[in-house]
Amino acid sequence: MDKKIRIIVAKPGLDGHDRGAKVISHGLRDAGFEVIYTGLHQTPQDIVRSVIQEDPDALLLSILSGAHNRLFPKITKLLKENDVDDILILGGGIIPETDVAFLKENGIEEIFGPGTTIDEISDYIKNHIKRRL
Amino acid sequence: MITEDNKERIDSLISKMRAGNQRATGRLLTLVENNLDAAAYIIKKIYEFTGNAYIIGITGAPGSGKSSLINTMIEKFVDAGKRVGIVAVDPTSPFSGGALLGDRIRMKRNFSINDVFIRSMANRGQLGGLARATKDLVKVLDAAQNDIILIETVGVGQSEVEIFKSAHTTVVIVIPGLGDEIQAIKAGIMEITDIFVVNKMDFAGADQKVAELESMLDLNEKYEVSNPDHSLIVTRTQGWRPPIIKTNAITGKNIDKFISLIEKHKKYLIENNQMENKLKIKYRSEVLEILKFRMTQNIEALIYKNPEINQYIDKIIAKEKDPYSISEEILLKFIHMG
Question: Is B104–A54 a contact, with Cβ atoms under 8 angstroms apart?
């Protein structure tokens, strides 16, 4: 059994719009990944706990509510505190261009906004996975 | 192959896991699932720490209310002070090879991280190796000191039968109304099910479903026929006849009774010295699985990667020899044990 790329798609905070996250989850499943979508209204602690237990290769954070500058760094900080330092962390949703630099300084590898294709995301992930078994 | 470096890293993960570090447990689960050499190394090291958890296998068709039932079970176990590990297996798409692992999202979020450890996995087409991987994940969760481990799967196929040989108690969930479900419950599963749950008991047809299951169990009864002095004596062999319980996992109706059935089964296994029998069945099949997997790996590597094989295949094409004769030659010349 070959290892597949394992992904968690997570929506932090109060943002209740998850059509995008679901489209991404299904799309990445169709691209051959093993995807865990953790549902709505996850706290940073919830998300970190899922990462700890499921040990994915990549974490995709989706947010449309504008709270990314607060929530994303909180998550990456908690991950580091829990010895999670080798997974690819990406962000998506509604994230203004002007915030991208700040987020990259805070542990997010890349941001994918509206209009990104599934292919772009799956290629990016395949090429940037940080670790092999 | 495991390098010395990797061995050190793995040893460190194992100590951390034993000390309660969930990140280490998560990493070990990944290694064990995906790398047979790592699995062998890890299982060898942690085997002495396994055997303490009580393992419950649960399966049912999609829509049977499995997740709701499992949520209530976990709540009861946690309330009773138990630490619970869950391995949840979901199907892999036969088209893309990917999978959407949807069990975690259905779990209640108020479980404390220390009480409940949930690990999702894909069945990867149920090809050889699923049962091995699942059982090894269970061993890691056992060594990580979980008191109860749930193995959750979908369906009742050959892989499920294999996986549940590792469980102490196997639960199959059905619901009223799905007519062909009973027919679809194959022989293997009937033999290893310890408790039947008819969930969604408020739906029409619940009692009928119970009756159908009872007749199926009647057919499966084992009888001994003795004929000592030309008179026929038929006795039903003693054993555990799987009880059938109706539940409503949403309202919680009969859940306590269901949990106590699991405890009753555990008691039966202990009091009737059945644990050792179970372990014999379990480990015989595990050893067979590992052997088969290793052999398959070796054979596939030989046939697909070793250029020496080409001349053998050429002989078949040239009609010098047939496939059976060639296979026997290859077996004698190339296949080693281990």
Answer: yes
B283: which residues sit within 8 A by CB, 6+ positions away? none
- DSSP state, residue B242: P
Contact A35 B109 (CB under 8 A): no
Q: Tell me the CB-side half-sphere exposure of residue B49, using CA atoms within 13 A.
A: 21
Question: ipTM score of the complex?
Answer: 0.95
Contact B133 A1 (CB under 8 A): yes
How does pLDDT run across B157-205, given as a tens digit for each residue?
A: 778 888 898 899 999 999 998 665 555 566 667 778 999 999 999 999 9
- Quickly name the fold that domain B50-272 has: Rossmann fold (3.40.50)
Residues of B in contact with A38 (CB under 8 A): 104-105
Interface of A with B (CB under 8 A): 1-4, 6, 25-26, 28-39, 45-46, 49-50, 52-55, 82-84, 133
pTM: 0.89
Chain A CB within 8 Å of residue B277 CB: no
Tokens of B272: 């009737």
Of B301, B284, B185, B203, nearest in space to B246 by CA: B203
| Set of chain A residues whose Cβ sits within 8 Å of the Cβ of B120 | 36, 54
Kindly state whether B108 is in contact with chain A, defined as any CB-CB distance less than 8 angstroms.
no
3-state secondary structure of B226: strand
Residue-range domain boundaries for chain B: 50-272, 290-337
Q: State both tokens at B108.
A: 């209640």
Distance CA A125, CA B201 (A): 45
- The two most distant CA atoms of chain B are separated, in Å, by 72
Q: In whole angstroms, give the CA distance from residue B333 to residue B9.
A: 38
